[in-house]
């Protein structure tokens, strides 16, 4: 309700009150009652409208307070935005210097990256050179290892040949010693012959008896060995030689006994040890193991010569006989290679016969 309407209602109330007061004596009570009711209704209406007006006023005051708060908030926001704009303007003012700094940093980074790339290229070139050098060193190391292996093989072959030569020398020296003793005995016998015929005759008888004893125990040795061996082996006894063909004992070009031949060698060693009981006590004797080959070349793979191969085979037989129980001091390995063939020529039969191991009973 507007203010003008409130004023009009108030004026109406006043006029009614005046009229009621002026004509209270002349009007009837019913009319007064009607007016009173009308007045009361108007008062109630005025009161209600006044109350509504107050409510609207309070609502307007509340809305005004809210708007004041919103205005203050907007003002604070504007102030904050002004400060932000000020900061942005300051940052914009500093931006050219920052851009210049960034461009300078970028140039420095590019220069550093270029230097690092160049260094990496140099390292890559150096790594390739190192790899090439390492490959060359590996190749030289392989060549050196191959040369060392070849040298070791050559040393081993030379060792075998040296051992064979020493064995040959030992056998020759033993034979020379025997001959020297025989010559010395003959010289002594000759001197005694000059001194007296009877003493010479006694010595001749003594030498004859000694030769008979030697011949006798050799014959007894081989007879007993022949009986013990029988026909259970590929070996044969020819006079005072025990001949063992190498075709059945060794692979071609090898100095390692086959398993079958090794077993036979162990059995043979035990039979030889038993046959040695026929030798008189105090006799100085050895069993000489002679290695023989044919005239075909060994090819230089493991042995430089047939003599080296024959020596290695003789040593192998000595080791087996030693394992069988024979004393090592009674075993003398020797090597003749292809130089003492049983049969001349190069036929398969001759080669087969010439490839052999011979065992002989000799005076030491």
Give your account of this protein's structure.
- The chain is an alpha+beta fold.
- Among the domains are: 3-85; 196-363, OmpA-like domain (60s Ribosomal Protein L30, Chain: A), CATH 3.30.1330.
- Helices cover 72% and strands 9% of the residues.
- The chain has helices at 3-22, 29-195, 197-229, 259-275, 306-324, 348-354, and strands at residues 236-238, 241-245, 285-292, 331-337, 356-363.
- A five-stranded mixed sheet has the order 1-2-5-3-4, sandwiched between helices.
- A hairpin with a 2-residue loop joins strand 1 and strand 2 (241-245).
- Helix 3 packs across helix 4 (259-275).
- The longest helix has 167 residues, at 29-195.
- It starts with a helix and ends with a strand.
- The model has no long low-confidence stretch (mean pLDDT 81).
């Amino acid at each position: 309700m507007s203010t003008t309407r409130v004023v009009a209602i108030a004026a109406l109330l006043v006029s009614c009150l005046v009229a009621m007061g002026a004509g209270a004596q002349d009007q009837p009570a019913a009319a007064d009652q009607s007016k009173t009711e009308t007045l009361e209704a108007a008062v109630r209406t005025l009161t209600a409208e006044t109350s509504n007006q107050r409510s609207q006023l309070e609502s307007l005051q509340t809305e005004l307070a809210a708007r004041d708060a919103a205005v203050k908030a907007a003002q604070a926001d504007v102030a904050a935005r002004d400060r932000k704009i000020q900061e942005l303007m300051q940052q914009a003012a500093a931006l050219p210097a920052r851009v210049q700094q960034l461009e300078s940093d970028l140039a420095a980074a590019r220069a550093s990256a270029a230097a690092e790339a160049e260094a990496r290229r140099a390292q890559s070139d150096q790594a390739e050179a190192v790899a090439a050098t390492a490959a060359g060193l590996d190749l030289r190391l392989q060549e050196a290892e191959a040369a060392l292996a070849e040298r070791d093989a050559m040393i081993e072959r030379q060792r075998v040949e040296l051992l064979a030569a020493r064995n040959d020398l030992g056998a020759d020296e033993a034979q020379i010693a025997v001959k020297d003793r025989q010559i010395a005995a003959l010289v002594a016998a000759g001197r005694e012959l000059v001194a007296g015929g009877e003493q010479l005759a006694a010595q001749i008888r003594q030498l004859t008896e000694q030769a008979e004893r030697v011949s006798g125990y050799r014959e007894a040795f081989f007879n007993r060995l022949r009986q013990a061996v029988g026909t259970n082996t590929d070996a044969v006894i020819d006079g005072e030689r025990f001949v063992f063909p190498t075709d059945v004992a060794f692979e071609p070009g090898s100095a390692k006994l086959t398993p079958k031949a090794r077993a036979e060698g162990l059995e043979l060693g035990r039979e030889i040890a038993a046959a040695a009981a026929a030798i008189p006590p105090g006799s100085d004797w050895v069993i000489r193991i002679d290695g023989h080959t044919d005239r075909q070349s060994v090819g230089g793979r493991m042995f430089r010569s047939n003599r080296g191969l024959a020596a290695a085979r003789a040593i192998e037989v000595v080791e087996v006989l030693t394992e069988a129980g024979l004393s090592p001091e009674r075993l003398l390995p020797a090597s003749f290679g292809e130089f003492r063939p049983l049969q001349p020529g190069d036929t398969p039969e001759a080669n087969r016969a010439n490839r052999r191991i011979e065992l002989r009973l000799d005076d030491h």
